[in-house]
Amino acid sequence: MTAPQGALAPEPDPHPPLHEDRLDYTPTARSVTLCRRRAARLVTEWGHPGRAGEVALVVSELATNALLHGCMRGRLFRVHLALTATTLRIEVSDPRGERLPGLREAGADDCYGRGLLIVGRLADRWGVEPRTIGKTVFAELTVQHADPPTAPAPAP
After folding, report:
1. Span 102-116, pLDDT tens digits
2. Across the strands, what pairs with 135?
3. Phi and psi, residue 42, nearest 5°
4. pTM summary value
5. DSSP 109
């Protein structure tokens, strides 16, 4: 698999993080559920409840890819979220730097192979960064300002 064009040299966001979260997970299917829920909750707490579903889906896809293609026994994977004034960056790091993700054509009956297509549709930018050990796959979503608070639905 190959990385998307130009993804190895991302432009740094000039704005400092307003919020940040980083947590390591064991390479199990349960961890994908945990990191997806945590990401949705944090994005909501950080003032962007309208993006929580998109963030949960992106985290889920990237964490699943790390679990299936990037994890090794006894090694954790990391989910890192960083919110600046303009960007929400989602990173998932794993220990397998030699296995780079890439877009592929999934057949109509294939159960797998659409994750990065989904990430590419939801994110404004995504790519891969090498690490000393392993790699980081990231996705960035543009945010302008905090979503307006949602009023509770009236009781029937």
Report:
1. 666 756 665 555 677
2. 94, 130
3. -65, -45
4. 0.78
5. T
